[in-house]
């Protein structure tokens, strides 16, 4: 059985990579005691805490952390009418943190995710591994059978074209979980006691043209390259669906990454996911999505972005247009979601006026 690392096992790294270039975004409804075990790894960084639910509740943050905290009142004050695009009573609210950040990189983690241990018993610095993933290229055009060729001890295998060995910029690093797997409600109900104890020491690039179910609880991305596409949709209070926020962002982001020539990696790092959510509550949130995804997935598989979509914003607005045209027949919710996608981009550009447009995945 996998066990989380203790705070005493988590030694601070000699150098905090990208200390002034990365924000850690945490959505929460509770006191952030879990930060104590992450202190050696997180304390050098700036935290953006997005408080969901009752804004009058006081969220306690352990001393010694540099952070800013936003609740629903703050979101309404900062965005005005455009605050309608930010979900309420759902962890999808985390994307507000992406919008107000001024850093180049984002790492987001859930408050029930603890420090994991590798097979040798060493505490895993998940943030450091995410940064290494983001700072090395991806290989979406041609699959390398030895996984990430840029990791120490690996390289391109025989037969890999030399013309493709430079790779492409990495926009997303998608980490995994020990202990509680990220299962949907039906799988939770069938396998209530299943725990993930397999540690696979691998990072791979998800091939171009291949979608994946992105999980937001252990995720990092290059905000300059792909930030505007990381919208976690309309979920939670007043919406007919939940628990599809990160997957929606992942599908949109992957289509845009493929179009702009950017890469997405998955695998290391692992975190220890401590708590299984209630499968019956999850089923109530997910059940429409379980049906809808059978039409949503083909939509994204077939989505084509015009050549004149040279920025993330242009790509996202085009996707919103296609969502309205093709998915509104599935349910009126998608008409509302498409409008919210446009509102999100408008709000993003208002808060990020300089260098807002990122052509061809590279900042001006």
From TrEMBL:
Keywords: Cell wall biogenesis/degradation, Glycoprotein, Golgi apparatus, Isomerase. Glycans are attached at residue 158. GO terms for molecular function: UDP-arabinopyranose mutase activity. It is an enzyme of class 5 (isomerase). It catalyses: UDP-beta-L-arabinofuranose = UDP-beta-L-arabinopyranose. InterPro entries: Nucleotide-diphossugar_trans, RGP, RGP_fam. The record marks 158, 165 as: Required for activity. Coiled coil: none annotated. It is found in: Golgi apparatus. GO terms for biological process: cell wall organization; plant-type cell wall organization or biogenesis; UDP-L-arabinose metabolic process. It comes from the Eukaryota. Its EC number is 5.4.99.30. GO terms for cellular component: cytosol; Golgi apparatus; plant-type cell wall. Belongs to the RGP family. Probable UDP-L-arabinose mutase involved in the biosynthesis of cell wall non-cellulosic polysaccharides. This is UDP-arabinopyranose mutase. It comes from Hibiscus syriacus. The lineage of its organism: Eukaryota, Viridiplantae, Streptophyta, Embryophyta, Tracheophyta.
């Amino acid at each position: 059985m996998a066990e989380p690392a203790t705070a005493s096992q988590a030694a601070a790294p000699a150098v905090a990579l990208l200390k002034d270039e990365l924000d850690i975004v945490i959505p929460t409804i509770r006191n952030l005691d879990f930060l104590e075990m992450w202190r050696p790894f997180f304390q050098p960084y700036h935290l953006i805490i997005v408080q969901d639910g009752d804004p009058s509740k006081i969220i306690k943050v352990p001393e010694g952390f540099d952070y800013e905290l936003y609740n629903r009142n703050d979101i309404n004050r900062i965005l005005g009418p455009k605050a309608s695009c930010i979900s309420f009573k759902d962890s999808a609210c985390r994307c507000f943190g992406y919008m107000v950040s001024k850093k180049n990189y984002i790492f987001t983690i859930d408050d029930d995710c603890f420090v994991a241990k590798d097979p040798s018993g060493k505490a895993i610095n998940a943030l450091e591994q995410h940064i290494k993933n983001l700072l090395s290229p991806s290989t979406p055009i041609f699959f390398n059978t030895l996984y990430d060729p840029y990791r120490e001890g690996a390289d391109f295998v025989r037969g890999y074209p030399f013309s493709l060995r430079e790779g492409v910029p990495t926009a997303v690093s998608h980490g995994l979980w020990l202990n509680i797997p990220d299962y949907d409600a039906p799988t939770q109900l069938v396998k209530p006691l299943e725990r993930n104890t397999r540690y696979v020491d691998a990072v791979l690039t998800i091939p171009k043209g291949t979608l994946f179910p992105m999980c937001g609880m252990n995720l990092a991305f290059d905000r300059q390259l792909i930030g505007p596409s990381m919208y976690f949709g309309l979920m939670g209070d007043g919406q007919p669906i939940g628990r599809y926020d990160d997957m929606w962002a992942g599908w949109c982001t992957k289509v845009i990454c493929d179009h702009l020539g950017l890469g997405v990696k998955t695998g290391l790092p692992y975190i220890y996911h401590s708590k299984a959510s209630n499968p019956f509550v999850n089923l109530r949130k997910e059940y429409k999505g379980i049906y809808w995804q059978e039409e949503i997935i083909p939509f994204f598989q077939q989505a084509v972005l015009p050549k004149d979509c040279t920025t993330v914003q242009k790509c996202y607005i085009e996707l919103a247009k296609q969502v309205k045209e093709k998915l509104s027949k599935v349910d009126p919710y998608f008409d509302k979601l498409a409008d919210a996608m446009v509102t999100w981009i408008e709000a993003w550009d208002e808060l990020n006026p300089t260098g807002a447009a990122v052509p061809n995945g590279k900042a001006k």
